[in-house]
Amino acid sequence: MAPKLVFVLLIVLLGWALQAILRPPPPKLCGSPGGPPVTSTRIKLRDGRHLAYKEDGVEKDKARYKIVTVHAFDSTKDFPLPVSKELVEELGIYLVAFDRAGYGESDPNPRRDVKSEALDIEELADQLDLGHKFYVLGTSMGGYSVWGCLQLAGAALVVPIINYWWPSFPPELSRQAFKKLIVPEQRTLWIAHNIPSLLYLWMTQKWFPSSAAAMHHPEIFSKHDMEVLQKMMAMPRTIENKSRQQGIYESIHRDLLVAFGSWEFDPMNMTNPFPQNEGSVHIWQGYEDRLVLVELQRYISKKLPWIKYHEVPEGGHMFILANGWADRILKALLVGEEPSAVSK
């Protein structure tokens, strides 16, 4: 009996040890004892969570166009869309950005998925009285939030993240594109999709490089991206990045789990939300993007011909931050003006 009891005890202890290693620490909620302070305006959602937001542009009651912007991976609402004040005043644009769940000063959502992100946008719009006609613009990882709420006045997805496991992708196309990612990113996305319970351990271990995006690995940036980064680094630092202040698991790790997990729907099976041309959906993609690959974005645009697809020949993943591209994207979305320097 004694050897059996020792064996059982060892198994139990091993199980506890594995749980301790695999289980991420609880988040440090904003406003809680020992947590970051609440410095932003927040709304309380139906499920009790708080969502932090920031308004910009013209006054909401005087705006001709209202836009909800959705931030990228490892970012927050405090990094503004680089749209010119001249365009904001000319078109009468009201902008509202928010911290996605677990980021910045918005409470984490342990049940976060593509649908919940869309519902957060809808509830924010309801509580701010934006009405039924407003626009959404999501960049990079923020794109998956936008896919779930296209039935508005219109939407722009700028280098939106692509899930390599969407069922409608031809397997060979998806495999070829996946292999173009640098190896650490391949490993991270594979774990996020296939063994999500190991992601926290993988992202926090020190033996092998994990997510290239989370580590800001130079290989993920194109020549154009590096030029953008150099210009940004030369500017005075005025915004503190608070994206991870409540914990890495409910912010960047949860992003990877949702974006590359199993979605509740396949975007390529969607029907045109604007059959009478009462609105439009746009995808903007940089040809030189090394994080979101152009061949997959082209395939999506062919499967969904009602999407207005724009390809920026020399653009990388960060092209929206340079050369007035934010203005061009908003003009195309709001008034249908197509920049001549863009191939379609």
Automatic annotation (TrEMBL):
Annotated signal peptide: 1-17
Pfam families associated with the record: Abhydrolase_6
Ranges for domain AB hydrolase-1: 84-321
Keyword field contains Endoplasmic reticulum: no
InterPro entries: AB_hydrolase_1 (IPR000073), AB_hydrolase_fold (IPR029058)
UniProt keyword annotations, A-Z: Signal
Top-level taxon of the source organism: Eukaryota
Keyword Signal: yes
Stated name of the protein: AB hydrolase-1 domain-containing protein
Species assigned in the record: Paspalum notatum var. saurae
